[in-house]
Amino acid sequence: MELDIMLDIQKIRKDFPILNRTVNGKPLIYFDNAATSQTPQQVIDVIVDYYSNYNANIHRGVHALSQEATDAYEQARIKIQKHFNAAKAYEIIFTSGTTHGINLVANGFSSILTKEDEIIVSALEHHSNIVPWQMLCEQTGATLKVIPMDTNGELVLSEFDKLLNQNTKLVFVNHISNALGTINPIETIIEKAHKVGAAVLVDGAQSCPHIKPDVQELDVDFYVCSAHKICGPTGIGMLYGKEEWLKMLPPYQGGGEMIAEVSFEKTTYADLPHKFEAGTPNVCGGIAFGAAIDYMNAIGFDAIAQYEHELLVYATKQLQNIEGLTIYGTANNKTSVISFNVGNIHPYDIGTILDKMGIAVRTGHHCAQPIMDFYKIPGTIRASFMFYNTKEEIDTFITALKKAVMMLS
Amino acid sequence: MTIEEIQNEIIDEFSMFDDWEERYQYMIDLGKTLPLIDEQYKTDDHIIKGCQSKVWVHAEMNNDKVEFTADSDAIITKGIIAILIRVFSNQHPKDIIEANTDFIDEIGLKEHLSPTRANGLVSMIKQLKMYAIAYQTQLN
Fold it and tell me: At A19, which helix (H) or strand (E)?
């Protein structure tokens, strides 16, 4: 069904003070959203309010400030629980971000896996979803297998079927590829993995700003994401884990907060979620993460997805008219990320010239070297859009890109 | 010409440009004309890996002067290399060791020599100086 929800983009843009600034004398056009999203005033206000009014250490003080901060932090956990539809608030573990969440799970499995076990990652992964598993395999002797991709940037699921067997213990896949924008069929992957009894971790770093996942409906075992991709601050993220898994995995770090009782003979660990939250957490970050979720939901994920798809189609069409331009990642189901090169021009050169014209794009291998190796390229230019971007900005970007190509040819 | 004289000459040349476009077009053109490094030196032994662009550098000592050739896979990086080679090549090792690169600020290209830029240029300058130090010890 075609949705007909109009976003008031000019009103939304006013929420983001950074969009008013200039870069190299030109109005900023920010198309590096897949790296980090910008922060609305509503979230900035929450951060300022926290440090102005109730900054305190949490879960331990008897004084008013500590209680207020603890309440706000735990309220944020509940907001996040509701957003992702987790069954229990304690299934949401605050982390420093996606990478932390992945490492927490990988570390947990290091005491469970044996050398007969196999784990599967996809060819579309970010380095952060490859390296921890390689380290885990080195530690345990388990074998790492890879779901291959095709030239469109889509995973070859028939090959995935062949990789699965009774030794498969874990499957790791990103929901959306950061380098290409492909939306992976995680529903199918989870279902197939569960049939052989393997657990699935979904890296939601790229999907969280575009798609509102229901972790119970997906039946996913672990889901990780970062607040800074979804209009929140950096240094905070979350790990969702099914209760039975989180209870089974050992703690990742030792310290305060994560204990029940400590003596020099024995320490008993705290209950979930605190077992995985050693030390003073990023209290302000957690609260601001909750505020970012509120902000996004107030706009509405259906409206966001519809508008961003419009931007994707509009930009793709215009880019395809540029001679010698190749788009990498042409999956049917993709988000508002366009990775491309023009002729033999190095991505770094185009990125440098675009920056001189106030346009922020990402260039390089996007921490996904295996994908670049697949296409036999050093890297790409990546433009990624959020709901606060406009078609006018895309027009300016296309004109600037043409100029860069002319200068560099 | 001494290193300082060449640097002043480059500053003069850049002062004629009105805007970034002219500066960058000049660098791009320089990048296109830079004598390429001999293919035999375009190997992993000569590579300086930046996250964004790669740089290859080769050095030789002729008549007590160090001669550099270099290349990059990105043309703007190559243009800046051309400027750096013009300054540092065919100089005595001692002068190369003592030289600074402040002139890069004056010609408006400071951002390219930022250690966080990851284009290999900061490492390249270190490498040029390392070669000079190595040759200097030969002369001593």
Answer: none
Q: Which value, in Å, is the radius of gyration of the alpha carbons in chain B?
A: 14
Cβ–Cβ below 8 Å for B75 and A346: yes
Of A124, A176, A185, the residue nearest A367 (C-alpha): A124
Fold of A9-37+301-408: Aspartate Aminotransferase, domain 1 (3.90.1150)
Whose CA is closest to A305, among A385, A228, A237, A382? A385
Measure Cα distances from A338 to A176, A326, A351, B118 in Å: 13, 10, 14, 23
ipTM at complex level: 0.88
Q: Enter the tokens of residue A191.
A: 């279902």
**Residue A237 phi/psi, 5° resolution?**
-160, -170
What does the longest C-alpha to C-alpha distance in chain B come to? Answer: 46
The DSSP letter of residue A50 is: I
How far is Cα B96 from Cα B88, in angstroms, rounded to an integer? 6
Nearest CA in chain B to A345: B74
Per-residue pLDDT tens digits for A44-96: 999 999 999 999 999 877 899 999 999 999 999 999 999 999 999 999 999 99
Q: Is position A137 annotated as part of the catalytic site?
A: no
- The pLDDT assigned to A126 comes to 87
Ordered DSSP codes for A334-349: B-SEEEEEETT--HHH
Q: How far is B77 from chain A (nearest CA, A)?
A: 8
Residue-by-residue DSSP string for A356-376: HTTEE-EEE-TT-HHHHHHHT
pTM, rounded to two decimals? 0.92
CATH of A44-298, one of 3.40.640.10, 3.30.1370.100, 3.10.310.30, 3.40.50.620: 3.40.640.10
* Closest CA relative to residue A210, chosen from A349, A337, A41, A363: A337
Torsion of CA B25, B28, B30, B34, to 10 degrees: -170
Query: Between B21, B75, B77, which is nearest A408 by CB?
Result: B75
Q: According to CATH, what is the number of the domain B3-139?
A: 3.90.1010.10
Contacts (Cβ under 8 Å, ≥6 apart) of A20: none
Could you tell me which residue, A389 or A6, shows the higher pLDDT? A389
- The 3-state DSSP class for residue A119 equals strand
Contacts with B54 from chain A: Cβ below 8 Å: 378
